[in-house]
Write a structure and sequence with these properties.
Length: 456
């Protein structure tokens, strides 16, 4: 049976693609391994030029790729187009950072000794990319992996396989640099266990991360795992609501809430609580659901139809526990699209599923808190630790909380954004490893020490 890509707006079969059979898969892995032996010897400056040539493909095919993203996973076309901005920003930053990050470290002189640390490529990097930001998630690995001298096997999500094909086409001027695979779960696990694969990066669910880790358990290789979050926002007593509410709501509802660093719960100082809720409800009412190919649409369908049932169950559980449902809360009836409206819940206890389990939908559950210490306690009460945001006029307050928050990234007065100059990391069940920034290169290379002594 081929892979069927379902359009989440009208439920039509958008594409059918064949899975890679074992012999095809084996040839692709072998070719990537052979190409690595050549690519690693290409001078860094030439590698960077060849990578930039590949990026030009995305410039030329920008509109076609954006339309395909929308048809595959439902993102409004305006958001699909906007994804290219982050794509190029991250790619260019990682290319610019490569010479310094990959440079040989020369230790201070010592009598008769030459001591150096090299950063050598790993080999074939297997990137298992998610569908929610199909360009951004893939580029986080592809560009720095290639710059470091690795080759890449890219297994894109079954929801967005055409994006994987575009990455392969972009670098076809140097065959074997990026190779797209279409695999089921069992075949993916086999590739993880293949001795020709030197490193694995997976973006997806915690359950998927456990499967990938299990598949690699018999091997001594590193695995990068970016497994999502339940990211909290804290609105302090001194927060400017005119500035604060809109970005928090946007952080919860952009891309229909299908972001690993979306705002998935909010804690608001009780002195600002009701005013925050009133403004948040108005902000949610401004979203325009509809045909995602319409440039005026600001809320597209969820990529997975099964998500509708999960979100409704979370809302029902919260209300059963005493929460107030202020807007939204159930799927939009009367159409084939997987639409779930922006949903605002107030007075949600921290034990509710919507406060503990990842929603991955446009839901914002809110709870009042008495002070910073209670906010900190509630924010850390989670199995996840990807990002957290603090909304306050005081740098000192944000710094105090940041030092105690269990998260890979802590924001002050912003959220739901990746700065490519900063390492993207996580704690707890949100994963392990680092991408982006110069630190991202350290996970795509191995260090080799040179300890040379001159003849006496």
């Amino acid at each position: 049976m081929p892979l069927s890509v379902i359009n989440p707006y009208d439920q039509s079969v958008y594409r059918e693609l064949p899975y890679d059979q074992p012999a095809v898969r084996d040839r692709k892995i072998q070719f990537a391994a052979q190409t690595f032996r050549q690519w690693r010897r290409v001078a860094l400056a030439e590698r960077l030029d060849l990578i930039r040539r590949g990026l030009d493909y995305f410039v030329r095919h920008r509109e076609t790729i954006a339309a395909e993203i929308t048809a595959q996973m439902g993102k409004p076309i305006r958001e699909a187009r906007n994804e290219f901005n982050g794509f190029f920003e991250r790619a260019e930053h990682m290319l610019d950072a490569a010479p310094e990050a990959l440079a040989t470290n020369v230790l201070p002189p010592a009598p008769g000794l030459d001591r150096r640390i090299l950063h050598e490529p790993l080999g074939v990097v297997f990137d298992i990319a998610a569908w929610n930001y199909p360009l951004l998630i893939a580029v986080n690995v592809v560009v720095p992996a290639l710059a470091a001298g690795n080759t890449v096997l890219l297994k894109h999500s079954a929801k967005t396989p055409l994006c994987g094909r575009h990455f392969e086409k972009a670098f076809q001027h140097y065959p074997g640099l990026v190779t797209h695979l279409i695999l089921d779960h069992a075949d993916t696990a086999e590739v993880v266990g293949d001795p020709r694969v030197a490193h694995v990066v997976f973006t997806g669910s915690v359950e998927g991360g456990h499967r990938i880790q299990s598949a690699a358990s018999g091997r001594f290789i590193d695995i990068g795992l970016e497994l999502g979050g339940k990211d909290p926002a804290y609105v302090a007593a001194d927060a400017d609501l005119d500035f604060t509410v809109a970005p928090i709501v946007e952080g919860a509802c952009y891309n229909a809430g299908q972001s690993c660093c979306a705002v998935e719960r909010a804690y608001v100082h009780r002195d600002r609580y009701e005013a925050f809720l009133e403004r948040a409800r108005d902000a949610m009412a401004a979203f325009r659901p509809g045909d995602p190919m319409n440039p005026d649409t600001t809320l597209g369908p969820l990529a997975d139809r099964k998500a509708l049932e999960r979100l409704e169950a979370q809302v029902q559980d919260a209300v059963h526990r005493g929460a107030r449902l202020l807007t939204g809360g159930k799927r939009v009836d009367g159409g084939r699209g997987n639409f779930f409206p922006p949903t605002l819940l107030a007075d949600v206890p921290n034990a509710a599923a919507v406060m503990q389990a990842e929603s991955f939908g446009p839901i914002l559950p809110v709870q009042p808190v008495a002070d910073d210490r209670e906010a900190l306690l509630r924010m850390n009460d989670s199995r996840y630790g990807l990002t957290a945001s603090v909304w306050t006029a005081k740098h000192e307050r944000a710094a105090w909380l940041a030092a105690r928050l269990e998260a890979g990234t802590v924001y002050q007065n912003r959220c739901d954004y990746l700065d490519p100059g900063l390492p993207w990391s996580a704690v707890k069940d949100s994963g392990r490893g680092i991408s982006l920034s110069s630190y991202g290169y350290y996970h795509l290379t191995r260090t080799k020490s040179l300890n040379f002594r001159e003849n006496a």
